[in-house]
Structures are given as structure tokens and as C-alpha cells.
Amino acid sequence: MMNVNTRGTYLTSKACIPYLKKSKIAHILNLSPPLNLNPIWFKQHCAYTIAKYGMSMCVLGMAEEFKGEIAVNALWPKTAIHTAAMDMLGGSGIESQCRKVEIIADAAYSIFKKPKSFTGNFVIDENILKEEGIKNFDIYAVKPGHPLIPDFFLDEQPELVTKKMESQGAVPEVKEEKLQPQPKRSGAVEETFKIIKDSLSDDVVKATQAIYLFELSGEDGGTWFLDLKSKGGNAGHGEPSDRADVVMSMSTDDFVKMFSGKLKPTMAFMSGKLKIKGNMALAIKLEKLMNQMSSKL
Fold first, then answer.
1. Which residues have a catalytic role annotated?
2. Per-residue pLDDT tens for 61-72?
3. pTM for this one?
């Protein structure tokens, strides 16, 4: 993330600056957010925030350094944009809560039309398009009229962003529901592993080739494993026969929700409910396997 976002932005700008100085309409536009130092934006994804804020700091520094020669600005969406990343994080149906990429393209064009004196700004896509006279933003919605997910770093009350996203279905089970206590799940993990074990086959093992260790806290917790390397596969309580490729730590309640499709592993990881050690590529393979098993759980 540091290489692509912060370092990539800095070095690309450095390489282009000698040529941009010769232009009458020179612009650098970074896709990075306004600098919001509320700790909530660092809590669950510190590396990502630092990497994106590094791009924003390039805007501040270069806009001042090259004032009058090169316009340097940042652009950030007000709502989630439908991309491959959103499909990965949000899963099926997430696109209905997003806008199309065209809103970013139109906002970028609005910035590039401005003179070089327009520099050092952190522009929000919807705001600049409103200044352009656009009133109907349904044209940018993947599903017009459907509630949209707010993007990170923008909300005036960031503590409410997670709740707002939950209410729109974008982040299922990021926080525990306080109004309705969860029922006790006596033996739920054991029952889940029985169903997992019954679902195993040589084809699943061949497609996965990994051993997973689950360190579960809470009722019915302890150490559990899923062996998708041995012939036919195996799953159950205790340690696997061979070294685990991926170790996942979480509560028993969240484990059951994950395998039943009520909690997406990526979101559990992003929200701090799931901790992963080991091969992340194999962890992603398990998520695909969970999607296949969820109908049986």
C-alpha cells in the first residue's frame, strides 16, 4: 500500500514535473481524501489510512511548492463507488448501494477545466458537480433511489458511519446488536464443524490445498482445525496433523456467523473481529469455500 499509494504518487509526480512545468494547463490530481485526524479513521485500517493520507500530503506540499506552475489537487468520492474492491469487500448486491465510476470522471474533468490558480484543494465529487449545475445525481447511481454507502474520512460524525453502513446492509454484523441479545449458541461450533466435515471432498481439497487453524474464544471455543490438504479432508477439535498455513482468531459467535453467511470474512477482518496470521491468499480461498457452504449451515 505504501509503495502504490504514497511512494507511487510521489515518484510519478517527480518524474512528470519537468514536463508539466512546460504546460499552460498543468494539473496533478490525486485520488485521496481530506486530512481528517480523528483516530476512528486509523483504528481499524492504520496502514491504509497512512498510505492514502501520504497522497493527500503530497497535494499540500506540491501545491505550495509549484504554485503558479502546476495545479495540484485531490479528488475523493462522497459515496462508495462500484469497483472490483467494493465487490470484494461488500459481496453480492453491494453495487446497488454505490455510484458508477462516471461521477469521478466527470468531477475530474471539472477540475481539469479550471485554471492553475485552482490548487491545493480537497475536492468531493458531488460538491464540485453541484457547482457545475448538476442536480440529478440519480444518473450516477447503479440503482437509482437506493440508499448509498458513505465513503470513509468524510462524515462530520465518523462514529455514525459504521451504524449508517450497517443500516444499509453494507457491513453486516460489524457491531453486535445491542437491542436484541444474541441467543446462547451451545455446541454451535461443534455442529458447524460437523456440517463442514460432511461437505468435504477430494475436489474441495484439490482446489484449496491448505490447513486452517481456528483459535476461538467464548462458549464452545478452543482450538479447531480444517485440513484441506489430506486426502478427503478433515475437520474438528484440536490441532491439525500438520502445520497450519493460516491461523484465524475470533469469537465462537462470529465464527458461526461467518460460516453461515451472516458475517463476511473480509468485513470481519476489516472491523477487527477476525485476526489472521499466515498466507492471506489461502485465507481468501477459504472465504470462497464459505460461500459454497453457507447454504448448508
1. 48
2. 999 999 999 999
3. 0.58
